[in-house]
Amino acid sequence: MISVVIPTRNRLESLNRVLDSLYKQALKPKEIIIIDSSDQAFTTKDLITPPNTINLILERSTPSVCEQRNIGIKLSSNPIILLSDDDLVFEEEYTLTLYDYLKKNPSKKAVSGIILEKNTKDEWAYANEISDVKLIYNWFFGLSIFSDLSKSKRGNILVNRIKTKLSNKGNQISKAGWPIFVNWNKDENDFPFFSLMGAMIRKPEEDLFDPVFVFNGIGDNYDACIKLGFNITILKKTKAFHHKEITNRISPKEGFYYRTSALHYILLNNSNFSSSNRLFLLWSLIGVLIPNFLKMNTEMIKYNLILIFRILFKKNLYQQETLNNIST
């Protein structure tokens, strides 16, 4: 009934943790497909032994999380696939709940539980708290807002108007292309796109992930969600825990650079967006640039100026000639 696809690289301990979590599911998968690109290849002897009912498949690949996922999806023998990162732990009812949802909603292509991460208070949380000042600033510049406004306190007249406006519009994409996800008040919440690290999907006929996103797969979820209809349901009571592994993870500053480059690539190459969206993306980068100038954060200033230049002259990082220059 269910296949699980896990791309992995140099994270054996973390991989075994997610496997243990999958072996304990109330609805166990029929097969788990691991696509390994580690420097030193794993063998099945390195992995914890599955129950007899689960077929464990281990394949090798070159390092590219998008290619690894595509390979795993092609190898899967079931029409329903759980996409899993190698640093998650799932609640025992996770696969059962998601599978039942897709069965009851045949028009839906993708569903996910809520992905919890440790916040600054060392608590498992699904959305960041946002100050009123940052809310106004991000709204003005069209930057990301990822916060549960139903839990936030009332502010002054301006703040309350912005909160009401955002809540009424619902979960959306800003004109710059950044996510504005503020409504989490239902058990089932729809989002244009969401991280697919713990999503269950119907098996696509074509490659879901664009291998152009070679840098740690940053940007792949946005692109894949567009292919899935830009409509992902999140089941708030169904939880997975993201044990954010350090191995293979780039710095937040580099992540911003590659994520923005990926967004620019999507704005250039997808019919859902136009030149006006790219202008708003430039405006949003001015919003990022201002506080970094005030802090004299030279690395972020450099990244922003490079991004602004590339957007102005349509020289995207992910264009083939740029990728070739980087590789050489």
**What structural class do you assign from the helix and strand content?**
alpha/beta
SSE ordering: EHEEHEEHEEHEHEEEEHEHHHH
Distance between the termini: 45 Å
Name the shape in a single word. Answer: globular
Give unreliable regions as ranges: none
Question: Average pLDDT across residues?
Answer: 93
State the share of residues found in helices, binned by percent: 25-40%
Tally of DSSP β-strands: 13
Largest sheet: 10 strands, mixed
Radius of gyration: 20 Å
Treating each run of at least 4 consecutive H or I residues as one helix, how many helices?
Answer: 10
Q: What is the strand content? A: 15-25%
Q: Can you characterise this structure?
A:
It contains ten helices and 13 strands. It is α/β, with parallel strands linked by helices. The longest helix is centred in the last third of the chain and has 21 residues, at 275-295. The protein is globular.
